[in-house]
Amino acid sequence: MSTTVSSVIGAAPREAAPGAGAPGSGSAEYSSRNPARLDDVVARVELSGPEDVHAAAAAARAAQREWAQVPAPVRGRVVAELGRLVEANKESLARLVTREIGKPYAEALGEVQEIVDTCDFFLGEGRRLYGQTVPSEMPDKQLFTFRVPVGVAMVITAGNFPVAVPSWYLVPALLCGNAVVWKPAEYAAAAARAVAELAWRAGVPQGVLNLVYADGEATFAGLESALRDGLVDKVGFTGSSAVGSRVGELCGKYTQSPCLELGGKNPMVVAADADLDLAVEGALFSGWGTAGQRCTSLGNLIVHRDVHDEFVGRLDQALRAAVIGDPAGDVLYGPLLDQKFADGFESVLSTIADHHKVLGSSAVGRIGATAPRAGFQGDPEAGLFYHPVLLDGLRPDDHVFTQETFGPIVGVSTFDDLDEAIELGNAPGYGLSAAVYTSDPATAFRFRQGTGAGMVSVNNSTSGAEAHLPFGGNGRSGNGSRQSGIWVLDQFTRWQSLNWDFSGKLQKAQMDVATVEPDRGYRLPPELGGTS
Question: Which residue, 65, 118, 182, 523, has most beta carbons within 10 Å?
Fold first, then answer.
């Protein structure tokens, strides 16, 4: 069964604009397909053009002021109700995520739980949007600070985490009194509509949360016109580093500071004293879980020379034994998200060179009759299923070493000392997540000091966010903004100061300030310990 979805702007759906379809198709409709069964169309998506992106920003602008007047604790109750509704629909929403993007059901359940956790955290923040009372340098004058909403937020999200990551933006943005225009990935359109429906039924007015389906170029053009007309005050973007750079450049043109959560080339260092079984388990989950399609997926394994052969042998064995296939079952991973990602992964595979030792499976490329995978669950011909790849002998100038690959492939390099490992980890220029496996606290802390990653794990995988911990990266992984926890409040509020003078006269700062006249030439006499 498939559904048809279209943009919801204000209180009503919008018809798709002519010629606003998938790139190069000339059609206004995009088919969101189940990547595990390509003949299963999950949603027919009526795509909007730039004018609808602009209209959504205008609708949000019109609704935002009234929403901001709702007391923050009441907005917190709306967030609480969203959490309860998501909880009540957890299995249904997880099944939809599995069907639409091919994420294993167990992981999809965890993703839905992340929405619940985010709501549980932020419902209390409605009572804790604290400002400060600040002492003045002058008498009979008091200073205050307040958090105020930024206004209208344009949120553009990827589809690899189609419900959890959007909640990191939507929940705090709405709690803080902002109105939102949400542009989800086309290939995750049905999951996005489901989340929006739950938010509206939790008490979020439709004009306060607007849902727009559009392709990338239409979104970019609509965002530019909305920024030019002063309709958008904050942009949140999760996606590739290349597109994030374009979004950052556009926002800078209009003096906006976006929240950019971009790609990663996340290193995992395996020290000589590491628990190798634990390190293999962590590498397997973070490198190939979700078919390597997380921004926090393991990219480069950096293994101490003394344990390299043992570790790689164990990992190769574990990867060959891992079950791949139907995401409704108990599998390490299912299909790639969409045909465009399969095409991108094929391009990555073409960079495998003669100096690489290819491990991890019986073949390379798409799983099928001519390239079978032992233990595969389901019908490999029905979907976008690919063999896992473990590349040993990685060099710092290899494409797989320097670039985010967004697929089930991980490379291995070796190191002799920790400084070399840190340098290799930082070399690609990303800075999202990094991990180190060691039994030595000094190694763990020195790694933390040296890595450029915004998030560091010790004896754990590169993947795994919690709702009350800051999430975000540096360098090619982002602009230093953070999501989740109290830190995201700085993205969706601005500080406003108030000075209140009740002296009955004009007191001029830095001029009408009482002064202290110390005797700086005084020295202690000998009887009090001074020198003569």
Answer: 118
